[in-house]
Amino acid sequence: MRAVLIVLDSVGIGAAPDAAEYGDEGAATLPHLAEAAGGLDTPVLTRLGLGNIPGMLPDGLPIRGVPPTDAPEASWGAMRERSQGKDTITGHWEIAGLLLRPGFHLFPPGPPSFPEDLIRDLEKTFGRPVLGNRAASGTGIVNELGEESIRRGAWICYTSADSVFQIAAHTDTIPLEEIYEACRFVRERLDPLRVGRVIARPFTGAPGSFTRTLDRKDFAYQAEEPTILERLHEAGHPVFAVGKIEDIFAGRGISDSRHTGDNEGSQAAVDAFLAEQDRGLIFANFIDFDMMHGHRRDPHGYARCLEQTDRWLAGLLPRLGPDDRLILTADHGNDPTFRGTDHTREYVPLLVHQPGRPGRPLGIRDGFYDIAQTLATWFGIPPHPRGRAFLP
Q1: Range of 253's domain?
Q2: N or C: which end of the chain has fewer CB within 10 A?
Q3: Span 68-81, mean pLDDT?
Q4: In a domain, 108, yes or no
Q5: Are 41 and 130 within one domain?
Q6: Are strands 155-159 and 164-170 parallel, antiparallel or unpaired?
Q7: Both ends of the chain: CA-CA distance in Å?
Q8: Which of 220, 238, 272 is the last residue of a domain?
Q9: In degrees to the nearest 10, what's the CA dihedral of 276, 279, 280, 283?
Q10: Of the candidates 172, 150, 152, 168, which has an alpha carbon nearest to the alpha carbon of residue 160?
């Protein structure tokens, strides 16, 4: 048996009950971007039942171009996050069976955002000054400080509303491996604070046309209990990671990984694992929705990205056998029509396709970790500590 779990990074479907606590009341990624783009052309997601999900939600908004269907080919529902936070690590870890309460440490917007002794040690150890030291949009701060960072051989360090310390540098000025080494240095010193991620953000190009490369790397905090990945791996079920999954879980519980930097690379990696493997879990993150379009508040680009993924799904579904399962979901929202540039606290969609079996409503799941419990059930390992399986 194979299970393919795909996280459509940031594809939320409506404000969560506690959205106001995060300043996100009224956010609704899918409905809002579809409306702004004049509708979505996603026939496969429509067939699977994506348009049926808003009707389950309190105050759910329709998705323009994605109507409900009478007989969805997948089981459909939504999930509410129970952990504190709205970032990538929190969402993925809860999908994998964990509950983060309290959530990860958040830095103040600054400047300065980071502890003085940490910045001093980073500058002294690598002999390079630090620029930024505040909350910022990644593309914005690189455009603002990129030329100075090249001239001075400096790090650009910034944070966001997530638990994150990001280090940007031009790869013609600071070699890629040195950028990674600086991230490892910071990662070790931030573990006592329980900071979710340290992220390397290499960029290239000239002032006015800087471009972030696909060599991004995430250095994650180590989970404090085993995830479903580790439990499956220990029980003899291989786990194949795609995209930034290996980084998010610090390599734990993973049999093989293909690190990719964009959706098309991740789609190719999923295709390759399906061709090569006849059992196990394939766990993929499709990053472009969040990185390229959500944070940049680009609803039209977000819509086109969803349509490209829909076309890819059209080729994927016929390759699944009767013993395979496909789960499509998200880790948080990132409404490209909302104020600011940060993630949004939302319900996430849940579509579960089992070839040859009719879909049925799954309701609103109280915790992303219902996915972990379902995987435990499917693979026949002892129950996970939390969550309720949604399909036998």
Answers
A1: 2-101+222-379
A2: C
A3: 98
A4: no
A5: no
A6: antiparallel
A7: 14
A8: 220
A9: 50
A10: 168
